[in-house]
Specification:
Strand content: 15-25%
Radius of gyration: 15 Å
Oligomer: single chain
Distance between the termini: 22 Å
CATH topology: Streptococcus thermophilus LMG 18311 protein like
Largest sheet: 4 strands, antiparallel
Shape: globular
Number of domains: 1
Number of strands: 4
Structural class: mainly beta
Number of helices: 1
Order of helices and strands: EEEHE
Length: 118
């Protein structure tokens, strides 16, 4: 995950239940403009994982692949691989129908299939 996120710092939510300031580093909530609307983003880099939750403000739908890629590129370096998990049924939790997540382990590399398959 990027260590210098000064380009998105202006989008940090600073007040209310999700409020934080730049001293929190990559941990906090952000409202990031995208093509005339906003993406709600909650970011953390705790417990050995980089994690981003993404929802679309005011829309009753999940984020699209392009919206997720846009957010991935804002928070992760170009050479970093990140992923979305589809857990087994016994581990599945759905607290919000329209939120998707991006994950990256901090101390392990994510295996990749051959390029031709990606």
């Amino acid at each position: 995950m990027r260590k210098d996120n000064s380009m998105i710092e202006k989008y940090r939510i600073k007040n209310g239940a999700y409020g934080s300031n730049e001293s929190y580093g990559n941990n906090g909530a952000f409202r990031i403009p995208y093509r005339g609307y906003f993406l709600n983003v909650i970011v953390s880099d705790q417990s050995g994982w980089d994690h981003i939750s993404v929802s679309v403000l005011g829309k009753n739908r999940c984020p699209t692949w392009m919206e997720m890629k846009f957010i991935k590129d804002k928070f992760f370096r170009e050479e970093e691989t990140a992923l979305q998990y589809h857990p087994s049924k016994d581990k599945y939790i759905n607290d919000h129908n329209y939120v998707l997540h991006i994950w990256r382990p901090q101390s392990a590399s994510i295996p990749m299939p051959p390029n031709i398959m990606v």
